[in-house]
């Protein structure tokens, strides 16, 4: 009732002030306008955006984006911002209303939105979030059902995987490919588990090992190799859209991202339980306990949340913040749950039972998490220190000291500001004094004139001219050539300050002009002292056009009274001096002395005026034509806060020299402290900040907010009855929930990723989408069996590898079968093993390995760009990180500028999660093999190594086959190679190497090398 | 992956393919459709290809083609209506254009004196004065202009076009971008994102390289051509032998063919880029005889040659020059000079060769510039109104579409968003932007997302 009354009153007040009848206004202007421009889409029959605009009630009720108007407040009215076309929502969409019509509607809203004969309407409250009721089909969707344990089986049967696959294959009446030979198997397993080719020795020893445990021994050896983490860590980095730079609009270096990369590799090598690995990446900063190293590792894991691409130059900070959260949610959903949560940002998910409320329930957790240090352009992502407790403590200590020093700077600054303010208030009362002084200075303006144009050529009686080089004391360098050619000058000799002091014999008491001849291409104002007193701080401050003799000019620097006898004239500058040629002391007449321009500093000192303020007054006085303005006008000028008495740091020194000096010292101290910042490793990481729930963003816009929603998990998975997060961001709870053995998605998604890594296709062929638009599992029982095994083994990923590669199915050959192909072209029943091409890293690493070049040094970064600096300009990459033969996983991944070798070979876009590599065939891959530096260098090194091999060319060809393919060459192959070599090699040594290099290039480019059987 | 048909076509070039054909005749798996084979558009296209002349940095519409007498009259006065809530930087009062405007041609299009050459061909142009976008920063605006999204990584329009239409020349990439910027989105401005990599743009050099040195990555190596031929012959023999042993496999077949294609591309691409055989008159037409215009002129001339060779989408970038926050007078005058002759030359040349009728030329930047002043002689980024012009392939020549308000601050009538421009470009190429979709991460994606209307008012 109260609200009702308020609304009525508002109308009354608003209408009272208007002359014309608001009803008439509405009928004459507003109604026709609405009818013509708005009602076409917002009427009783058609409601675009769920909005009607044909009654006041409808406008206040609003549509999808909330109420259309707030009577009396056009700035808060969506209708008004929309017709202005100044926000994202622009109406009418293709036609901006003319300025006059925008003004009319704005005025109408401002006046209270009077709608004749409308019933008063209470402004609506934000509608509570709608509760979505899930359909039975949605609830029954396979991926949301608990993992079912495989039915018990008779213990004698071999690997369960084989039984699942065989059953399906038999159902379809498909044959099965015979097992692959041992050489094929070791190459397959070595690439699959380590990303590297087996050495010929490894192949030979495996072939010789006929023991029943040979395969198991090989699996164990490869899983224990550090190369395993380099291969499988990289797979996870695909999913985690890892990169060493931000990409997007501002491509800044992620200087610390590599620590997350190394952490991932380490985690895989250590077979860190996968649930722990998940928790570290979502909430590692919040996990309790552990050694310092474990805590550092856990914190590093949260880099997962920070390493994504961000628009760092978004002008709307709130949009930026929500976009970053969206990216986090989207990645997290796909990576761990196989859910495209991001689709629910603007509306309920169109295909999966994820509601917009679910989205903002999760988003609230990340809104309560600090991922960024600032959202201003260019924004800064968050980083936190790791390392020893000692190091972190030192950094904290440093921060304390720095804050204290910074505080005292701030305190002094405030003190000075206050003092200056008080002084300026006092000075404002002296407007006439300032005006007078300023007028006088302006009148006697201009620069000091020389007594004669050239005192050296045109000597003044009683005057003295000395060569600058003839100083009595000083350290300036004398120079008779170059800058001093033909005249002799003094210049900076390296010792600062530059000093030149002259003892001169004044012939008679009198007034003298001091003149200097110098050359300067840029201003170098110098302190000029006479008899130990500073005459000018800015003498010789003109620019003459050049440092050379042709730039030399005379300038009058000042006028002094001198007594007869010895006097010292001193030139001093803390930085290099201008190139002085001569110095003159010239007597002047009393008339000349009076006409000398007034020096502002002197006048200010004499009259106790503030020089800075006086300077501003003089500027004004320049326009007065020597007439002092009337007193009230002067006072207006004086009272103007942006006028001559405006605040300025230059006043500090003039008002409170002692405090100003203290401030300078305090600033120096702060700078000195900042130079001592201890070097502590930092990682991209998050931490909790103020816990807040979010309101649903209608249509995904932060400008139109709906109901507030508690922080909790998606209801289709976690149910309606869950209790919302009470304390903290909720990330720890989220991590526990995602990594729970009862979460139906998490283990399945990971088991599927491991399977995909071995068989080339997932059991669910859309590894990042287990939703309705994703694929259904080809073998649901097998998927559940693997998921259950993952959990049962304590989330051991290596256990899954062992289980999978121990199966007979993994050891099938790739044999082609026309009938089977006809029936199952996509090999969904696994009737043979999928041939696959080496991925980008395997290809480069493999080429380097065969050539004997591969450097296996682990870890670290090759990025030379400073953290947060731009990695590339408009034109080029500012560094060369790729010329080393390190494993590819250790080369920087630059978003919007991926290394060409990776780009050509189906490396995924590092801006989005990618659970599966594409396998395209494009000419760039062939060009890479033919012309790239990698191919050149590895084939050359390989050729040189072969030429070292003892024996004839045929023996060398055989050795080349052995090293590339780990098999013996056939006689036909040897003779073909010999023919090629004979055609290419005319005998000369250089040509011989080129011919062999060509042969090696062919081997490394060949299908037999580039594909894994 | 390549189809059997393509392999047979290639076999005609004769590299000992007969044995392979016998093999394929025996048992051929149903090869997946060739992703680059020319595809039928949704309806009869007006344009077969696009040349996009990108003015990176954001040319000022009120100083080039959108003449605003009221802006001149009210120079120094405040903007009489509210500015947008979100701006890149604060701007001051209205700033008159320092240049004079005059109507030209039969269409009477008003053009600023900084484009004296383009002014002579306005009757071939279709100006859209009511362009607008969503983002006021270079990175976001570039991504939106190229991909339709200023928030996410999405396929570039050139990738969509190649996905929709396939390629007419298998010796050249279907989407070429000459001297693109590595910043403001970099590769993402011409990447295929989730579309298969065959559709990604092939960069020729980058913005830091003179167009003379712009080339396809890895196109040139150190191996002499005859030696390389021997290597490819040996490789082909080995790979075909392996294919014969393992049975048919489109991936293996594709790889064999890709080496031949790469070999051909090695001569085809440099041949298109070799301008030495162009006549002196043509070179002068593109401004190659003038150091100020030669760099962009070469880009434009290469664009014509790529278009002739059947490349679907060619982008030329006048890179990051137009960002005059200050020094507008000097900066815009210099920029205009650098592109005026080359663009006029390109349009003239396309027309006289009969190429303009099925080539869509698009000119524009990532946004316009504020009619209000930044400093004394500068303008800020302005996505709320700016001008594009189109020519050729199915657009009405000699017309102007849409208007801005009296000061050129907001687009006012017949507003055209980037989404609408994208929809229109696809339409001219015979593609329905609502039907050109790709399934990824759980939904069907479009270049225009859920937006975009074809601007029917400019269709010829």
Walk me through this protein's architecture:
The complex is a heterodimer of chains A (1013) and B (460). Chain A has 1013 residues and is an alpha+beta fold. Chain A has a 5-stranded antiparallel beta sheet with strand order 6-9-14-11-12, with no helix packed on it. Chain A has a 4-stranded antiparallel beta sheet with strand order 5-15-10-13, with no helix packed on it. In chain A, a hairpin with a 2-residue loop joins strand 11 (526-530) and strand 12. In chain A, helix 19 (431-443) packs across helix 22 (611-621). The two termini of chain A are 79 Å apart. Residues 1-19 of chain A have low confidence and may be disordered. Chain B has 460 residues and is α/β, with parallel strands linked by helices. Chain B has 11 helices and 17 strands. Chain B has helices at residues 4-11, 18-26, 69-73, 138-147, 157-165, 225-246, 250-273, 280-285, 291-308, 328-352, 418-428, and strands at 49-55, 101-104, 109-112, 125-132, 175-178, 202-204, 313-318, 359-364, 368-369, 381-382, 386-392, 399-401, 403-404, 411-413, 416-417, 438-440, 443-445. In chain B, a hairpin with a 4-residue loop joins strand 2 (101-104) and strand 3 (109-112). The chains are: A alpha+beta (1013), B alpha/beta (460). The interface between A and B is large, with 103 and 102 residues.
